[in-house]
Amino acid sequence: MSQKFVQIIAFETQKIDELRKLLDRFEQKMQGKSGGPTHRILLQDRDKSGRYLAIIEFESHEAAMRNNERPEVAKLNEELTALCTRAPSFTNCDLKDSRELK
């Protein structure tokens, strides 16, 4: 059984509305295609204006790597980077535990 994989992307932008619209269009375009992200969370840093973190979950590391090979993903990364004030940084993680707390 493969382990879920999470990628954390830290980035800075002054164009968050444009970036969110780009992500929404991309997700609509990719809907129904297998191997893509299963969950996305976008966080805004409260202490540093213009800094954000995106948490992207995949079924496995292998699925994430296959997804990264898609030409649509390469184009998305190029367009996202153009909206950023500094290049995004990536942290790759194996998901060890996840639960909803009440």
List the defining traits of the structure above.
102 residues, alpha+beta, four-stranded antiparallel sheet, 4 strands, 30% strand
Structural overview:
The chain has 102 residues and is an alpha+beta fold. 34% of the residues lie in helices and 30% in strands. It has helices at 16-30, 61-68, 71-82; strands at 5-12, 39-44, 51-58, 86-94. A 4-stranded antiparallel sheet has the order 2-3-1-4. Helix 1 runs antiparallel to helix 3. It is globular. The N and C termini lie far apart (28 Å). The model has no long low-confidence stretch (mean pLDDT 92).
Overview in brief:
It contains three helices and four strands, in the order βαββααβ. By secondary structure, it is α+β, with helices and mostly antiparallel strands.
Largest sheet, in brief, is:
4 strands, antiparallel
Largest beta sheet: what is the strand line-up? 2-3-1-4
| Shape field | globular
What structural category do the secondary elements indicate? Answer: alpha+beta
- Amount of helix: 25-40%
- Our Rg estimate from Cα atoms comes to 14 Å
Report the span from N to C terminus.
28 Å
Measured by DSSP, the beta-strand proportion falls in: 25-35%
Instruction: Give the tally of β-strands.
Output: 4
SSE pattern: EHEEHHE
Low-pLDDT residue spans:
none
User: How many helices in DSSP terms?
Assistant: 3
Mean pLDDT equals: 92
